[in-house]
Write a structure and sequence with these properties.
This protein is about 30% helix and about 25% strand. It has about 475 residues and is of the alpha/beta class. The protein is globular, with a radius of gyration of 24 Å.
């Protein structure tokens, strides 16, 4: 592809060298640069790609896209300076792969909680209607039945566009993706042609470290989706929903339970493994059963119904898709054959999500509710005592343990959690080793108890200061069961 065609949608600050040259590849990793490649210099959190511009040229790169002044030694090297090289990478990548999102229906879901569940619900419905669906998100990236491990919720822009092209080649007519606040802020989804954007909710998360400096930055980042899509779907019961409605530049459809909305739920009935409600929509009014328990699942289902209603999906597919949907790591019951207690895995890692899952389980537990959780290191410290207080208030017994401590000392994270749980009368113990904590819970469980392992959910790893290890709680539970036998 000609360089001039690759950069036609960019706002160029300065160009040194010719634009009428053939580009053989695009990369943002200097180690992958080859003769004839275009290398985009990204100033990242841990390193600055501008430092590796010479390495890219030495490897054969003939064009550099930069946002800082640099000097390199090489023959016939074109240097293009832009205001934001992340944005440039996104637009160049979309052009390089032929803007694949324009030829598929693209649905983006953003919000603090519920993104994964909502995308799985939408996919289940669309597949029930005979669509070939691509899924991009926290748990995995999928093309039909093919699964590709996910490294982050929203991939880097080049990787995302490459995945779109792959999905298109596999016959996908629709792509449903989680759109993280970082993905929006760092231009990973710039250049994507969103047909529909969904706002699930908004609460405190992702503040500090390499994430957002404050709640306003976090919210404004999410709001960007509704300036990029043709139609927006908004949870009117959620905090900040009025600002989404005011800031959106697209047509809006609303959903909710408490406030008047275009798509709403009435006569809600919750069960231990499902939830039912009357869906009142512009297209139908029918009884719906969702195979994911909890009041909060109603909101996710309403968002999915709104998306599929706009896409013209018939009621029968919506009904059947929601009835059979399965979401890994979300209120997921782990088999415990021969035991009269239940072990449930959930990704809850914020105060709101922890309260949701514990409150849901508490309502139906025949015995005690045992809460096993920790908090991630290098993340917002202020939510730790809040989560401790929530678990102490709702659960009958809490085991405070480690999650992904990262570079922090696990003991300090535990102390932060204890500040909150001490404000309650809740019984608790501290067992820093997560496997030992799970073993203690299972060994001491009584008939009818429900053990909720919060925080890891779908994750199959644990991150420490000096290493990342394989860690799948399903396997941990299975191994402990064998030990107890």
């Amino acid at each position: 592809m000609k360089l001039k065609d690759l950069v036609e949608s960019l706002e160029l600050v300065e160009v040194r060298g010719g634009l009428d040259k053939e580009i053989r590849g695009v990369t943002y990793d200097s180690r992958k640069a080859l003769p004839g490649y275009l290398f985009v210099c990204i100033d990242g959190f841990t390193t600055d790609g501008h430092k590796y511009a010479q390495q890219a040229v030495d490897n054969g790169a003939c064009t550099l896209v930069v946002e800082k002044d640099i000097h390199v030694i090489g023959e016939d090297v074109t240097i293009i300076r832009v205001k934001n090289s992340r944005e440039a990478l996104a637009l160049i990548s979309a052009n390089w792969f032929g803007n694949p999102s324009r030829s598929m229906t693209l649905v983006g879901v953003t919000g603090t909680k519920g993104k994964t569940t909502t995308t799985y619900m939408i996919r289940s419905i669309l597949e029930e209607a005979g669509k070939t669906v691509g899924l991009i998100g926290t748990v995995a990236n999928c093309i039909g039945r093919e699964k590709i491990p996910a490294r982050r919720t929203t991939p880097e822009s080049y990787d995302l566009q490459e995945m779109f092209e792959r999905m298109k080649e596999k016959g996908a007519d629709t792509v449903v993706m989680e759109v993280s606040s970082q993905g929006l802020k760092l231009h990973r989804v710039t250049g994507c042609d969103f047909d529909i954007g969904v706002f699930t909710n908004f609460s405190k998360d992702h503040i500090g470290g390499f994430e957002h400096p404050d709640m306003e930055d976090y919210f404004v980042s999410k709001l960007r989706l509704f300036t990029m899509c043709q139609k927006g779907i908004v949870n009117v019961d959620a905090a900040y929903s009025e600002r989404v409605l005011d800031g959106a530049t697209c047509d809006i459809l609303t959903f909710g339970i408490e406030k008047p909305a275009d798509v709403r739920a009435e006569n809600i009935t919750t069960h231990s493994s499902s939830v039912e409600f009357d869906a009142v929509t512009p297209w139908f009014r029918e009884r719906i059963s969702v195979s994911v328990p909890g009041f909060f699942s109603v909101y996710n289902a309403l968002g999915a119904i709104a998306v599929c209603g706009l896409l013209g999906i018939p009621f029968e597919a919506i009904r059947d898709g929601l009835k059979k949907v399965q979401v890994p790591g979300r209120a997921e019951v782990v088999p415990t054959p021969g035991k009269d207690y239940t072990v449930m895995i959930d990704y809850a890692h914020t105060p709101d999500s922890l309260e949701n899952i514990l409150s849901t389980v508490k309502e139906f537990a025949r015995g005690r509710l045992i809460s096993v959780f920790g908090c991630g290191g290098d993340r917002d410290r202020t939510k730790r005592p809040l989560m401790g207080e929530i678990s102490g208030r709702i659960a009958d017994f809490t085991i405070i343990t480690s999650d992904n401590p990262r570079t922090e000392e696990p003991a300090q994270i535990v102390r932060d959690i204890e500040e909150g749980i001490r404000k309650t009368n809740g019984e608790y113990v501290v067992i820093e080793d997560r496997t030992e904590a799970i073993r203690y819970a299972m060994k001491n469980a009584r008939s009818g108890d429900v053990i909720v392992l919060s925080g890891k959910g779908h994750e199959t790893y644990q991150i420490f200061k000096d290493k990342t290890i394989h860690y799948d709680e399903r396997e941990i539970v299975e191994n402990i069961l064998k030990e107890l036998e």
